Amino acid sequence: MDIEELILEARERVASDIHLTVGAETVIRVNGELYKFKERDDVGVNRLIHSILSAEQEKAFTTEGRDLDFSFELSDGSVQRVNVFHQNGRAAAAIRLLNTKVPTLAELEMPPILSELAARRKGLVLVTGATGSGKTTTLASMIDEINKRRACHIVTIEDPIEYRYQPGKAIIHQRELGRDVPDFRTALRSVLREDPDVILIGEMRDFETISLALTAAETGHLVLATLHTSNAAQTIDRIIDECPIEVREQVRLQLANLLQGIIAQTLVPQTEEYGGRIAAMEILIGTEAVKSLIRTNKLIQINGVIQTSGRQGMCSLSDSLSKLNKAGRISYEVMEMYNADNAQMLE
Prior knowledge:
alpha/beta, Rossmann fold, seven-stranded mixed sheet, Beta-Lactamase, 2 domains, globular, 13 strands, 24% strand, 13 helices, 347 residues
């Protein structure tokens, strides 16, 4: 069995990830759970991992010992995101099986406020959550919504490119780290000279990336980005904490002026009737009340504002979970478990 056959069979089982490890069992992830998948010997696993590497990647991985992040496409057009690495002196790979089609916000059952945020002409929209929480898919759906509705120029900076967009009203340039540009900082320094209207940043990783993203939003662009944070208040804290002490107040003011919204999402397992997972989310909108709390560093009050601002499109994770439970989409036990996890994160 070659890598293409392996991936196609995993896709038939609705897997999201494949884990290949020399010296260990091959497993797949389905709806968040890991299952054994296809026994094979170490030589076969090693051959599968190396079969997806180009000559240049092979040299970087084998000779230089580097971890590799890249994407590759099968003959049927499906795209995979890959991380190849060493563990215990042996090769391993984590392969994310990406959707071939960008789902719409309606197909993802996202609330209308996400379409409203995608329609904004400037400012900063953040989609946050843990690894595997669907951030990239949500952002891709928002970008595709803009693509279908607005004649504009969209530039994405991704590591690596996961979704490829079909032609719509917009023109879209997708830049991949390591192939089209060396890093986020280099891409962000040049993006403002590329006449963009909308900029997607795969991840705001450090102060320089944050600073450049804020500058882009400040100069009249809509900037969409991700962070690995669990809730809105933590997201604001993380952005400010990444900055040197001497500029934190300035960044706080910039963020207060520019923030359009934060979507913090978690994928939760549905009941047997529906199967799979669905997004539960906390949504913060950059209203004047929220901006004032950011400016005055009263982030502890943000959760209270979220709970009382449903008419503005805001929603707490607890309310989101409760609605999913009442609709029969998730069990009471799942609701309680994720509420408990969220309570611990807010403490």
